[in-house]
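Sample entry (363 residues):
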Amino acid sequence: MLGLLVRLLPFWVREPLLIVVGSVFGVRIMYLAVHDHDKVAAGIGTVFLVFTAIRVAGVVRAVRARRNRGSAPASVQVPVPAGAAPHPGPVVQANAAPERAVAEKGVPARAVPEAAPQQAAPEKEPNWWLQALAAVAVFAAIGVALWLVPDRLTSADSAPKAAACASGETEAPPKAYRENPRAVTGDELCEALNRPDLAQLLGTPGEIADTASGSNGTAPLTDEKVAVPEAKVTFDTYSVNLSATYNHLTTAQYVKLMKFGDEQDVRTLTVLGRPAVLSSDHTMKIEISLGGGVTGGTGGPVEQGPLARTLTVALDREDRGGHYDITVWSESGALPDDSRLSAIAEKVIPAIPERPARQDAGN
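Predicted structure, serialized as tokens:
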């Protein structure tokens, strides 16, 4: 229906209108395609721009044809016999009578017969009322489209977005971070962990991160001399924690200590050419009361939380001490396959900044 109304418009109204609409929509769609990295939108924007270019070319041809339009010549030259010297002679008009023809050097010129006038077909008068109604309908349709597009864009912008890591902690990191040049911060771990494909690596594609945070902590019972930065990203299904411990404990020594702990299902492997170990342990669940009741606003008892799976990877191939821990758990107790933890480590660990270590760094 809209196309029929557009075709009823005069050429010099229809074509500029289509050029303006095509260029505005084409540029807008291409901008959104580049901003959102949408190939489909880029194709649609290209179609609009090509359509506009074709319309511009048609208008240019019409303008040139209008400028070059002119009437046919009104006179013809009298033919000269072969061998005769050229001599300017009288010109026989196309509509002149035969008796007005003259001869040149004894050779009579043949009179050009008068062409029968052709009556031009009467041009049909345009229906101005219909064209006016079509123009009003087209502009009304464009106005409705421009009214609805911002609403669609606003609804798209209001869609839930993945959580982003904080820009940085207000407090300076503890002294252990300054004394150990290898130590990274919790924000740096968060940037490495909070990947766009983290949910897919966990086996839950389509989920977006609910929270993402980092912290600059230290290991307990070390008098704040061992830096232990952490980062945490939570989804609807799983929660992922990434930490780095900068001490002299090797992975082999860590595996021996597991024999005296509560770790379950211990399995050694190699990740990124570094020694690694998989283990399982329960998380801790703490309930905090805000006031009233038996606890009187204090923390409740520490309970055993759901089972978590941890992949521990050495900081370097030589296993000179220190390690990364990637821990995954869920409220339901379900855990992803061990291969998914290895895939996360292979993507996340290379993204963590590596800094050279001093000989006297660490504890």
